[in-house]
Write a structure and sequence with these properties.
Order of helices and strands: HHHHHHHH
Number of strands: 0
Distance between the termini: 59 Å
Number of helices: 8
Shape: elongated
Length: about 290
């Protein structure tokens, strides 16, 4: 909040200085005042956004670390609940998703957002914006990369969930029918197998629900910080627009868009893993109902 007040104060003081000095001949005093103000604004905005980048990178690291710790135990519970083939295939898919998110979001996309904001700040030094199309391209690249990654991961989970759990269920149902055919012990063995299978499904679904809650708890504070900063920078740009140079207003608005991109990276990553866990929980319940 202190940095935001500094940004607003620098913008307003620079506007006053520029408007007062513009009455002199030549306009050199006005241009010099603008560049001094712009350098101060650049420093404040870059420092503020650097802190936001650290917040986003830290929460991404926490999400990925939690998923790496969760996967072995969770998919072991999936296998215990009668989904051995599903557990193997979905574990590999989730491992690929974690690897993809770690490379794409934590390394590539966050670096692209950093470059995007620096280009926005640097391109407004001149009176004509020089890199507007390139910054738009970077923004679209970040958004479409997130959507593509989410579509691939969720799509693979859905395709596998349409086939593998039913293959597991057919095998479990066949084994249960064979056990029930044993004279004398068949009914008891079948009831015991059903109870063990139901316990496994309960453990699996409880772990899945707890994992979704933990992901939400990990992400809620950083998401709120990024959301508040995005809104406040947009409000500062709105306050500055009537009195400040349009280039200064565009810089502040560009930093707000940078926070929006960081927020999208965190939210897409969080919901991607939440949806993947929910699909696994829902589809592997078929083993219990089939038997």
């Amino acid at each position: 909040s202190q940095m935001l007040f500094q940004v607003a104060a620098i913008g307003l003081i620079g506007a006053v200085f520029t408007n007062v000095s513009s009455v002199f001949k030549g306009g050199q005093i006005s241009d010099t005042g603008f560049f001094v103000t712009y350098l101060l604004l650049f420093t404040c905005l870059a420092a503020s956004f650097s802190a936001s980048l650290q917040v986003a990178a830290q929460v991404m690291e926490q999400i990925l670390e939690f998923m790496k710790l969760l996967m072995p135990a969770y998919y072991m519970a999936v296998a215990f609940s009668g989904g051995s083939m599903s557990a193997l295939a979905l574990y590999e898919c989730m491992l690929g998703a974690v690897t993809g998110v770690q490379w794409l979001c934590s390394t590539v996309l966050i670096s692209m957002v950093r470059i995007y904001v620096l280009m926005v700040l640097g391109s407004h030094v001149a009176k004509e914006v020089l890199l507007s199309k390139l910054t738009e391209l970077l923004e679209q690249a970040v958004v479409w990369s997130l959507r593509t990654l989410t579509g691939l991961v969720v799509g693979f989970h859905l395709i596998q969930a349409m086939i593998l759990p039913y293959a597991d269920a057919a095998g479990q149902a066949g084994m249960k029918r064979l056990m029930e055919m044993i004279p004398g012990l068949g009914q008891g063995a079948g009831a015991m197998a059903q109870m063990v299978l139901g316990s496994g499904v309960l453990i699996k679904n409880t772990m899945g629900a707890a994992a979704v809650v933990v992901l939400a708890v990990i992400s809620v504070v950083p998401v709120m910080k990024l959301t508040v900063l995005m809104i406040m920078y947009q409000c500062v740009a709105a306050v500055m627009q009537p009195v400040c140079d349009k280039r200064v207003v565009s810089c502040v608005s560009g930093v707000s868009k940078g926070h929006k991109l960081l927020l999208q990276i965190v939210l897409y990553s969080m919901f991607l893993f939440m949806v993947a866990i929910a699909i696994t929980c829902a589809t592997t319940n078929v083993n219990y109902f089939a038997s």
